[in-house]
Write a structure and sequence with these properties.
This protein has about 90 residues and is mostly helical. It has one domain. The chain contains four helices and no strands. Helix 1 runs antiparallel to helix 2 and helix 2 runs antiparallel to helix 3.
Length: about 90
């Protein structure tokens, strides 16, 4: 497995741990920001990820669910981002 795919795997594992309450949200976000910075992905991936992570940080100000933010929905979108990143990183 390439280093980029290993980094992505660590990122998705951190997301799963955070979703189960086993990793603080701020640690997961930090790992995702630093991990994504090392991935050779097009700029549009960074833009989308930054928006998602910013919204997750904002959702922490609420109880995790509000009319504007669904934490589970944001986590689901991070997982979708990771799936698309994996496709891009695995492409020849």
């Amino acid at each position: 497995m390439s280093a980029a795919l290993e980094t992505l795997a660590r990122m998705t594992e951190a997301l799963a741990l955070c979703a189960r309450g086993q990793l603080p949200q701020h640690e997961m976000i930090h790992l995702w920001r630093s991990g994504a910075a090392s991935l050779p992905l097009p700029e549009k991936f960074a833009v989308v990820l930054a928006d998602l992570l910013d919204r997750i940080e904002a959702s922490a100000l609420f109880s995790g669910e509000s009319c504007s933010f669904s934490q589970q929905g944001l986590f689901d979108n991070l997982l979708l981002w990771a799936d698309k990143a994996k496709e891009k990183l695995s492409a020849p």
